[in-house]
């Protein structure tokens, strides 16, 4: 006979016994772990993992008048925030919180009102917004519910802030110059986007600062087709030996057009992308690209919110979210 009875949920007392600590210590582990000794935290974490224990958010809400839930507001338009959401959710769950995801329509003004209403409703303990809102520091609701706005998009969901940082392009250009490249071409993204304009401007500044030559800046639209069109229009002679594409799709189009013209990548032409998409890693040649740590961006926003909930100082160390990943699509300049 098969036992179909549901498994009983482990209790905080069982975690305490297994870890050989008090139940108050286990409670502090979920509320304010920084106050515990590393060895104590390790024992409690091991017990939590072994028992598959999860805090009882309903009971905690009744005792503390907190819900144990945090809200994450995401954009409803072009940009997919899935990776930022994954990072934020992981940080919240590690701190013992559940996460509710809300997609709020309308402009920044309307969205700001909705976020303030949510904060005052008592339904959540805190809010992180990845969608644009107005004057984030003035969003403190009358209830005192903390709100963190991660200002990485404008109201058209175009990347700004850290997402528009183009400094990794300097690393790409410098690395290619060390491989002997002197003539470069940049294919931009849609210049309505701050990130596309930043990469164009950084490209031109880096070329000038390093004493290199730009054979042109061709305006694209983030699509593979724009990369193909740009490379199809290059001259046979006196052309660039390195193409800096606005993203991985543009780079894939550039590589396809180079192959159609009988040019070998990277022997005849080096190509770089941006975003480090999985498809680029699987291409032949595998694409040199810029990794964007979206998970880290989401995790840091959530960490700031949790610090506010605990009355702690949020971490202030700056972390670079862009990193160059060198692969097969780049090599020495042709002779």
Automatic annotation (TrEMBL):
GO terms for molecular function: DNA-binding transcription factor activity; transcription cis-regulatory region binding. Keywords: DNA-binding, Transcription, Transcription regulation. The keyword DNA-binding applies. Transmembrane segments: none annotated. Residues 10-64 form the HTH lacI-type domain. InterPro entries: HTH_LacI, LacI/GalR-like_sensor, Lambda_DNA-bd_dom_sf, Peripla_BP_I. This is Catabolite control protein A. It comes from Microbacterium trichothecenolyticum. The lineage of its organism: Bacteria, Bacillati, Actinomycetota, Actinomycetes, Micrococcales. The gene is ccpA_4.
